[in-house]
């Protein structure tokens, strides 16, 4: 009787290890789709946060320049405050002018997670919109708006 107990090996069999690994793989396969969703939400939040920071940096530039906007100053302020160097600032009236009037709509193109976004606002309005995958050929960007801080009229 003692011999039978001593000959029993200590450890797991190959089949037991394969069953445990199979269960782990099945559990991971349940989590994979939800992780992709969380990654997408995180990327969207990063783009929105970057847009908000650019909006704040633009108004910081506006205040520093005594109520005037300059494309060069906006880019400089965004670079200094946010460390973002690859932005493009344009207005609705002219892309070649250095000055932007207070009535102009301002467009700032930036990149986050290898996607292009467009921050769009007017100086006299108190809010902004962020559009994903900016396309200059399309007139209506309403379907691509991922965030807006502008208040919508319900009338």
Biggest sheet layout: 5 strands, antiparallel
- Helices and strands, in order, run as HHEHEEEEEE
Protein structure class = alpha+beta
Q: Please tell me what the overall shape is.
A: elongated
Instruction: List the uncertain runs.
Output: none
Number of strands: 7
Query: Tally the helices: what do you get?
Result: 3
Strand order of the largest sheet: 2-4-5-6-7
Summarize the structure in words:
The N and C termini lie far apart (90 Å). The relative contact order is 0.11. The chain has helices spanning 2-7, 14-64, 71-82, and strands spanning 69-70, 88-91, 99-100, 105-112, 115-122, 129-132, 145-148. The chain contains three helices and seven strands, in the order ααβαββββββ. Helix 2 (14-64) crosses helix 3. Pfam families: N_methyl (PF07963). InterPro entries: N_methyl_site, Pilin-like.
